[in-house]
Specification:
The structure is a homodimer of 273-residue chains. By secondary structure, the first copy, chain A, is of the alpha+beta class. Chain A contains seven helices and 15 strands.
Chain lengths: 273, 273
């Protein structure tokens, strides 16, 4: 459905709307998942639902009903085509005030599959000035408050890059605006540790698993910009691109490297565990 | 309208709803104001609109039309009673993706005036474990992503306190969950500096102005929990309580002090500048 219209259901009702009392709108009080829907099937559905359930536990929301969400996605998404399925859970409607009372509201949206760079082409990566939040309470969660990412994405667009690195307020690299970052140096795979910032991406976890299974040494650590500049290979991950090599970082050009290629082959297609 | 129903307008239409494509819901991409509406009139409307306009500039949103927002509030709010008017601006509907394209959507809601402690009774204040975000890009903004505050407010409610202090990830005091904090020590008025966290409250700014006009020495600084514990006076501010003394902090009982009383008298009623 590339270029097609967006369709959605709110609590199972197609095209329904929300009152402004929804706590997702009022306070960012909710979570979302962005699922690749390829050839009429979701990729990594089990992983997405597991992350969503873990997020619900952290926020005190009831656990998601994955079967119902998938059934709703199947009503809306193409039976044999590609799309992006976005699942949102909010704490439902609430009175004014932060205290977390409410129920839960589910939104399943189906969006056109976006134009993405091919693997060989890779991504151009810039460095954003907008800092990511340091927020241990929310670290890892794909929650609805993404305003730093919005501002950073504005920077990326204005520079004509495909993605931008965000750093935390102390200058440590967190991630791209919509991707996790990996770098390879002397055969070791590094990715930023994300105990105070960032999203614990589905693909990030899968890449770490696959790397270990392939015997590639893995480090999660604080990473500064100089380490990114000194990398032999750089790549980005999310549920839509899976693994996308960085072929331009600031003024430097890079080729997709051997570790990137091995891992990309290992994760491609994302069979559910 | 204490205990009354909530009424709202979305882009001027009473009771209208929003599509889930609204960027306020999707990404917290918007701002809000919480206005005291007393005896049929807004308090500090000019200050609220000035803050909203400043926030719009930072986010690249068009400036708010204060006259239209006020006209809409007048349709919904009691002609002679008290209420809370909540104004929300979002970046309107957008396609999936963080990059900030869109328009603007305005929501004016009228909520019941809440039960608030009397000045003499004051507030009980606890210390939340949930850290506030350190997020220089958003510091000061009353933006829609308030999930840390939601979690902290849950802590406050579970302990039966009225308010809870939030600290940044490095342990510096930021504010209450829905108030700014002031402390008095040896006649000097202190409040946390908020260059990386927190909301630049309307009342916070007004208290700082009034204190200077009254010849009270003022300091904005990094403040640790020990300084709060050592304070002679503690008070909280927001647009609804104006100034509320802290009469219990952790296990300690305090009285509303002389500086708190002077400032409370100075700000009471909030004539617009």
């Amino acid at each position: 459905m590339t270029g097609g219209a967006v369709r959605w259901m709110v609590d199972g009702v197609e095209g329904a709307a929300l009152p402004p009392l929804d706590r997702g709108l009022a306070y960012g009080d909710g979570l979302f998942e962005t699922v690749a829907w390829i050839g009429g099937r979701p990729r990594r559905w089990v992983r997405h639902m597991a992350r969503l359930a873990a997020g619900c536990r952290r926020l005190g929301l009831p656990p998601p009903d994955g079967a119902r969400l998938l059934a709703e996605a199947r009503v809306l998404a193409p039976a044999a085509g590609d799309a992006v399925v976005k699942v949102v859970l909010t704490r439902g409607d609430g009175a004014r005030g932060y205290a977390p009372a409410g129920g839960v509201r589910r939104i399943v949206g189906v969006h056109p599959w976006p134009a993405l760079p091919a693997f060989a082409e890779g991504a151009s990566l810039t460095v954003c000035g907008t800092p990511a939040a340091a927020t241990p309470a929310l670290a890892g969660l794909k929650h609805l408050g993404r305003l730093e990412h919005v501002l950073a994405a504005g920077e990326v667009a204005s520079r004509g890059a495909w993605e931008g690195l965000m750093r935390d307020p102390d200058g440590w690299v967190v991630s791209g605006t919509r991707t996790n970052l990996f770098l390879v140096r002397n055969g070791v795979l590094w990715t930023p540790e994300l105990s105070r910032s960032g999203v614990w991406g589905i693909l990030r976890a899968e890449v770490l698993e696959r790397a270990r299974a392939l015997g590639i040494a893995v480090r999660r650590a604080r990473i500064g910009l100089e380490a990114v500049r000194a990398a032999d290979e750089l790549f980005l991950t999310n549920a839509l691109v899976e693994i996308l090599p960085v072929t331009r970082f600031e003024e430097r050009r890079l080729e997709p490297g051997p570790v990137t290629r091995r891992l990309a082959a290992a994760v491609r297609g994302g069979a559910d565990p």
